[in-house]
């Protein structure tokens, strides 16, 4: 008999899939690390379990405890699955720009959901950073995960996602392209791949309205770079500890419109029904094309599933209202 001990045993070992139509203009092989095959439909299952197990191991999380996290949904989903299997209570704190589908999904897996305004500074008491920290103080036997600064996040990708990409490409990967939010994915995978081959180039995809690209290029945290944007899952108005700027070779910024349009194109032209950050990632990859040559193997990571975006990027009324399509 072949079975996993519980649902957490099905995390990881996701497929690698070749892109064909959208990348036809490129000279090289482009492969997608297809993370929607995880049980929570996103890459975040990997780091959710790692963060919980590291917190159990050093006593930050105790039996019967409450897990609290500020999350755009995918980390919450991974944490919620692990909380069910391991017997913890789960509270997710979201900003109000996240899709309703994400909130409904979190409630469906037993999580309590708090919604906070997006357009307030991180240190405003109403922000989802502050609200998460306050709940953690108020609720006894609770643990605030803080995926931004919790380095178990990067560790999960260093120990699982990175080695899988190296093995699936027989060590031939030359470029890795990925959207950056907390930075866990790019930093963990990037560190692992550069340790195997220092010539592998690591590219971050950022949004307009986020600080990463400018900070990487100038070392300046420029508040003028911060303004509201639509793209979900990537870009930040803070510098998370999980972003290891030293292992990143460069950032490219993708507009909200392009990210939304390319999310639809991935689905309609490649049969890849994916989330909004996948659209940003593939458009970012195309913007980087001058860096790729014939023998390169470019891996892009697609974080999450399209079902969470049916009311937005997959809804033509919404796309028209936003001015993204005619
Ligand atoms: N895409 C989606 C859909 C996400 O939820 C996240 C996590 N915020 C990212 C991309 C960015 O990944 P990371 O946090 O590892 O940088």
From TrEMBL:
GO terms, molecular function: transferase activity, transferring alkyl or aryl (other than methyl) groups
InterPro entries recorded: Cys_Synth/Cystath_Beta-Synth (IPR050214), P-phosphate_BS (IPR001216), TrpB-like_PALP (IPR001926), TrpB-like_PALP_sf (IPR036052)
GO biological process: cysteine biosynthetic process from serine
Domain Tryptophan synthase beta chain-like PALP span(s) in chain numbering: 8-302
Alphabetized UniProt keyword annotations: Pyridoxal phosphate
One Pfam family named in its UniProt record: PALP
Cofactor(s) this protein cannot do without: pyridoxal 5'-phosphate
Family in the record: Belongs to the cysteine synthase/cystathionine beta-synthase family.
PANTHER family in alphabetical order: CYSTATHIONINE BETA-SYNTHASE (PTHR10314)
Protein name (record): Cystathionine beta-synthase
Source organism of this protein record: Croceibacter atlanticus (strain ATCC BAA-628 / JCM 21780 / CIP 108009 / IAM 15332 / KCTC 12090 / HTCC2559)
